[in-house]
Write a structure and sequence with these properties.
The chain has about 475 residues and is of the alpha/beta class. It has eleven helices and 18 strands.
Length: about 475
């Protein structure tokens, strides 16, 4: 062996040894740091965790249940495994203010629009078979803690005709809903005061409530296992390109989003993500996100000035104790006044609330609870309908945001006519959680196939804001 070859081998052995030694020392250093921070997942060496990729086919802005449902369905329906690169960007991974986890977790089929009834029926099927869809190998099975008790809608003489029309629509779509007279109502629920009630409807199946966090976590866990990027950061701007299109009426400006700019947490770093398509799943903040892309900031009296009419509306949920209350068979009751309540657990606790009037809408700057709203607006209505609630005691309360569609209180699903690669899945106005399995699938179908397949959602397109034709949902709680 020549001296030159021998020297080369020694050099290679030294490099291998150095790399092995360095790897071991870094491992020891990481272990020591983690031991010095008990209970913390922070890893100072792993600087890429949660960072968005430089490129993605689809960027989903908003990591609530809608965003992760879309991500899951995109990977589930892609034509070839790994064909799509999908990134979900969420600014608050703790979900401390997220509408999803602050929801009361109800699901019902009693809506007035056929599309909403169909979404409820599909979502109920999905939840019954959730482990077939969202189960992950070597992970515990999913338990969403479903409570199968129906919704009981009460109607006065003035609202009886509308309730009966709604039930006709629901039955036409395959929902099982019964109508009850005041006499039948009193026999079935003796604790209920039926004064002022002309008729009631009750969901016989596919209704109840479940754990919102469990569904969100299940969607997220499954999507990540399928290769979706989970990114922590806030979208602050878009880079767009535009082209002018001449029409007989006027000149239109069509634009595309080329880059999504993500502000990293606790940092001045701004990561641009090149993308083909953006899904706006930002919930109650989706209107602001749309404006960043140029939606609704055009010239007056043109399509360019039409905004996405979704804004945050704060809603209170109160929890009270009443040991002599309706008991375990208590359904979710929707009173003639709009006040609602249901059982919470098995210890004599109940929760409920009431949507305020336009004049009473609370400030949205924070999630503070107004306890006087319960005392003055809700409690008298509860005590009238359920006399034993006169002696209830409030134990806790919280507030959350609706992604409120001010135009018709219904979903916005589909692309924007001028910002051609921005897609919306927002505006559900309080019924988004329960419709997330169906709506996420519909959005994935539209992106991958160019059309809705399972349920036709054309009624919920952005174009209705241009034509001025609302898709009004009567049963908003």
């Amino acid at each position: 062996m020549t001296l030159e070859l021998q020297s080369l081998l020694q050099s290679l052995e030294l490099r291998v040894f150095s790399r092995c030694y360095l790897g071991k020392e870094v491992g020891k250093f990481q272990k020591k740091l983690k031991e010095s921070l008990p209970g913390s997942e922070w890893n100072p060496i792993d600087t890429t965790k949660g960072l968005p990729p430089e490129q993605a086919d689809v960027v989903i802005v908003g990591g609530g249940v809608m965003g992760w449902s879309v991500a899951y369905w995109l990977k589930c329906l892609e034509t070839r495994k790994g064909a799509l690169q999908v990134a979900v960007i969420e600014k608050d991974p703790t979900y401390s203010k997220a509408s999803t986890v602050l929801s009361v977790g109800g699901i019902r089929q009693q809506f007035s629009l056929p599309e909403n009834v169909q979404m409820s029926l599909y979502s109920a099927f999905f939840l019954r078979t959730i482990n077939e869809h969202l189960g992950v190998v070597n992970e515990p099975p999913i338990d969403i803690q479903f409570n199968p008790l129906g919704y009981l809608f009460l109607a006065s003489e003035d609202g009886a005709a509308i309730l009966e029309e709604n039930v006709h629509v629901q039955r036409d779509q395959g929902a099982k809903v019964s109508l009850l007279s005041p006499t039948q109502l009193k026999k079935k629920y003796p604790w209920l005061n039926t004064d002022g009630v002309a008729v009631a409807s009750y969901g016989l199946e596919n209704e109840g409530w479940f754990d919102p966090w469990a569904l969100l976590h299940a969607f997220k866990r499954k999507a990540i296992s399928m290769g979706v990027y989970s990114c922590h950061g806030e979208v602050t701007s878009f880079t767009t390109s535009s082209t002018e299109l001449l029409t007989p009426e006027r000149e239109l400006t069509l634009s595309r989003i080329n880059y999504v700019h993500v502000q990293m947490p606790n940092s001045l770093e701004n990561q641009p993500v090149e993308c083909s398509l953006v899904v706006n799943a930002a919930g109650c903040w989706s209107g602001k996100l749309a404006e960043m892309a140029g939606v609704g900031i055009g010239s007056p009296n043109t399509q360019d000035e039409i905004k996405l009419p979704v804004e945050p509306r704060k809603r209170y949920v109160y929890v009270w104790h009443c040991p002599d209350g309706p008991g375990l068979a208590c359904p979710t009751v929707i009173d003639t006044t709009g006040t609602y309540f249901r059982r919470e657990g098995i210890g004599g606790n109940y929760l409920g609330g009431l949507s305020p009037t336009e004049e009473e809408e609370p400030d949205i700057q924070d999630l503070k609870v107004d306890h006087s709203f319960f005392q003055e607006k809700i409690w008298p209505k509860l005590a009238h309908r359920v006399p034993v609630f006169e002696s209830l005691k409030v134990r806790s309360a919280w507030a959350g945001y609706y992604d409120y569609n001010t135009f018709d209180q219904n979903a916005v699903l589909g692309s924007h006519p001028l910002v051609e690669n921005m897609f919306f899945i927002t505006g559900f106005s309080g019924h988004g959680l329960q419709h997330s399995p169906a709506a996420g699938r519909a959005m994935a179908e539209l992106i991958l196939e160019g059309k809705f397949k399972t349920i036709c959602m054309e009624k919920f397109s952005f174009n209705r804001f241009i034509t001025g034709e609302p898709a009004l949902e009567r049963n908003i709680i």
